[in-house]
Amino acid sequence: MSFTLAIVGRPNVGKSTLFNRLVGKRLALVDDQPGVTRDLREGAARLGDLRFTVIDTAGLEEVTDDSLQGRMRRLTERAVDMADICLFMVDARTGITPTDQVFAEILRRRAKHVILVANKAEGRAGEEGALEAYALGLGEPLRLSAEHGEGLGDLVQVLMPLADAFEEQSEETTPETDVTLTEEEAEEGATDPRWPTPEKPMQIAVVGRPNAGKSTLINKLLGEDRLLTGPEAGITRDAISLAMDWNGLPVRVWDTAGMRKKARVQEKLEKLSVGDGLRAVKFAEVVVVLLDAAIPFEQQDLRIADLAEREGRAVVVAVNKWDVEDDKQGKLRDLREAFERLLPQLRGAPLVTVSAKTGRGLDRLRDAIERAYTIWNTRVPTAALNRWLAGMIEAHPPPAPQGRRIKLRYMTQAKTRPPGFVVMCSHPDKIPASYTRYLVNGLRESFDMPGTPIRLFMRGQGDRNPYKGRREKNAGALRKHLDKKKG
Question: What's its EC (predicted)?
Answer without folding.
Answer: 3.6.5.-
